[in-house]
Write a structure and sequence with these properties.
Amino acid/polyamine transporter I; single chain; 21 helices; mainly alpha
Length: 505
């Protein structure tokens, strides 16, 4: 397929078809909401700190650089090609149908466990909010309820979701900002906490103790494992600004604004959280052993009732984030289905008259629950595997974009253009996404465990000793090989929706 240069984006009708209803602000609000900054940081804040100490803070700016390069590249792509299923459309436009299909399939395979990871983050907030004792059954119940809400919510028209996301975002940011700033003002401003490299270990008596680390060499593996983990988990899914472009008014201008606005806002919110909360922890070692350092910081300076309000608001933020990311996942399946690229495409390309891809929504809801009942509700395990799979797809898209750029793309500039900075930014995005994917895929009991490591068992079928991220990436690709071998001619002969429409003026 020849490289296509287009500005703006078409309204592509399949059944009811997707409808343009989003402004730049609404697109950005939905993209930011899908990232789920505060809830994401809170859900694994204690895990990351227990592994690397307060110095986990430095993972935030490091990951922000890599993700910033990706977002700039996403914004340029979204400006020229604002279509649903952007992670399938972009490589298809730039490198042809075969490449686009494989990248889109790999990304689709990552989306289902990603939704599971969003669900699995909710119990971490719900437990202290309602004083629930953690249990597998309780976690499963919370996760299933979250999935049902997501399915129901996503059958509602996208403009309604946008309005809810905006108001939920305002409420979350207002409450969390006030709580963080007041905690910081009343706290001791222990900036030394940001430089405390330590880890929770088990001594000879089997008791948990905090071990200080005084040199960079021993700390580096802990930083690459747990220290970077929280930032990597939070700072992604900004491509949704492009996927929502097909439903955004004046998409060539507003879709990239949504991507970059959400990114910049997310970075600022994360810095505020870390600087206010980490420096307000009165005793870092006790907070690490307690497993809930955010609670230690806030309740040391504010009443428990305020902390409960804080938890309630970030729980709402996580529910909105889950439903927003769910929306992006459903649109990816819909976008590939209308091009005949997935099994039962005719079914999953259906929409309601208001534009909601309801069959794709039901599919995402059903498949996203499978990892919970096959593997675990252990948050870090699911998050690590899903994140590794997502970054594998990001690396593929960044590599395809770099390949196209080296061949002269873009020949025509979109509204958002990187110009002479494009090559350097793209190279940083490729290297950053590759290193991040390798870090998440690296076999590690804490962030990428095997089935046996999760259950504390040994032996059995060889599949029980495959790290989760490798299984999450590998299984969809094996299914893809079988499907592609059987249907590749029909797949590539199917007309593409993007070829049927002229760009907006």
């Amino acid at each position: 397929m020849a490289t296509v240069d287009a500005v703006g984006g078409p309204t592509i009708a399949t059944g009811g078809g997707l409808k343009r209803a989003l402004s730049a602000v609404t697109n950005g609000a939905l993209t930011y909401a899908g990232v789920g900054v505060f809830a994401g940081i809170f859900s694994l804040y204690g895990f990351a700190m227990a592994g690397a100490g307060g110095a986990e803070f430095w993972g935030w700016p490091l990951v922000a650089i890599s993700v910033g390069a990706m977002c700039l590249t996403f914004a340029e792509l979204a400006s020229k090609y604002p279509y649903a299923a952007s992670m399938y459309q972009w490589p298809t436009i730039l490198a042809g149908k075969r490449v686009g299909w494989w990248v889109g399939w790999a990304y689709a395979g990552a989306l289902f466990p990603l939704m599971t990871a969003y669900y699995a983050s909710l119990p971490v907030i719900i437990h202290p909010l309602f004083n629930l004792a953690p249990s597998f059954h309780t976690d499963e119940t919370i996760i299933v309820i979250a999935a049902v809400i997501a399915v129901g919510w996503n059958i509602v028209r996208v403009s309604v979701l946008g309005k809810i996301a905006k108001w939920a975002m305002v409420a979350e940011i207002a409450v969390v900002t006030v709580v963080c700033l007041v905690t910081f003002i009343l706290g001791g401003q222990h900036f030394s906490n940001l430089f405390q490299a330590a880890t929770v270990a088990t001594n000879a008596k089997g008791a948990s103790v905090v071990q200080g680390i005084h040199s960079f060499g021993p700390w580096l593996p802990l930083f690459l494992g747990a220290g970077l983990f929280n930032a990597i988990w939070v700072l992604y899914t900004f491509e949704n600004g492009g996927t929502l472009g097909e439903e955004t008014i004046d998409a060539g201008r507003n879709a990239p604004r949504g991507v970059m606005g959400a990114y910049l806002f997310a970075i600022g919110c994360g810095f505020m959280f870390y600087l206010c909360i980490t420096t307000s922890i009165p005793n870092l070692a006790n907070a690490m052993l307690g497993g809930d350092p955010a609670s230690s910081a806030i309740t040391a300076h504010l009443p428990i009732g305020i902390f409960k309000v804080y938890l309630a608001v970030i729980a709402l933020g996580l529910i909105v984030a889950t439903n927003t990311m769910f929306m992006g996942a459903a649109r990816h399946i819909y976008g590939m289905a209308r091009d005949g690229q997935v099994p039962f495409s005719r079914t999953f390309a259906k929409t309601l008259e208001d534009g909601s891809p309801w069959t794709a929504t039901l599919l995402v809801g059903a498949f996203s629950l499978i990892p919970v009942f096959v593997f675990t509700t252990k948050t870090a395990s699911i998050v690590g595997g899903a994140t590794g799979a997502m970054y594998f797809a990001y690396f593929l898209v960044m590599s395809v974009t770099l390949w196209a750029r080296l061949r002269g793309w873009p020949k025509e500039k979109g509204y958002f253009k990187l110009g002479n900075w494009g090559l350097a930014v793209n190279i940083v995005a490729v290297v950053g996404s590759l290193l991040t994917a390798l870090d998440m895929i690296w076999p590690r009991a804490s962030t990428n465990p095997t089935y046996n490591q999760i259950g504390g068992t040994t032996g059995g079928l060889f599949l029980r000793d495959i790290p989760m991220a490798m299984a999450i990436i590998g299984f969809p690709l094996l299914v893809g090989v079988a499907f592609y071998a059987a249907r590749h001619k029909r797949i590539h002969e199917h007309p593409l929706a993007i070829d049927q429409y002229k760009p907006e003026p």
